Amino acid sequence: MSYAISRMSLMDIQKDIIIRLRKADIISDINLSLEDYHYIASKIKLLFRIPNDNSIVDDYKLIIVVYWVYSAVFDNLDGDINSFESLFSGIPQYKKKYYSQVCMEAFDEYGLNRFGITVNASADEYKQLILKHAGCIPYDEDVSKERVIKFKNQAV
Question: Distance between CA atoms of 73 and 58, rounded to whole angstroms?
């Protein structure tokens, strides 16, 4: 089912993704289409514009994580952990930190593998976790920027 064609709400998309993630090892295993990614991205970007959006981010933390993972898959970030900064353009630093913390909670809440990365992870560790869920590197590898680029080219 295409989210874009059905014009599904973010909440309905998130409910569907929760079901699909039960059969997946990593987030990119749910195989979103490019069209659905763009549809989700447009809705997520609207969420980020809402002032005082903390409760909204809490409600949609899983779909935000899925959006970040598929940004690594589709937006040609070249496996560069610093490329994720483009996803946060225009967002104040305190909100970036909050979004990352809330989204880390999604990994526990929905039983997603954190690959040993803790809740108090650095921004780069969080970005590495997103790349792992995008299928960019082997699950058991320590990650350096060079290895991410190498495995990104193999995985996608």
Answer: 24
- In this structure, which amino acid lies at residue 88? F
CB atoms within 10 A of CB 46: 10
Assess contact for 77 and 83: CB atoms under 8 A.
Answer: yes
Question: Rounded CA gap, 112 and 27, in Å?
Answer: 8
Query: What gap in Å lies between CA 58 and CA 62, rounded to an integer?
Result: 9
| Confidence category of residue 140, pLDDT binned at 50, 70, 90 | very low
Domain count along the chain: 1
Which structural domain, as residue segments, surrounds residue 86? Answer: 3-155
| Count of beta carbons in the 10 Å neighbourhood of residue 24 | 14
Say if residue 106's pLDDT is above 80: yes
Closest CA to 103 of 75, 86, 123, 83: 123
What is the rounded CA–CA span in Å between residue 156 and residue 152?
6
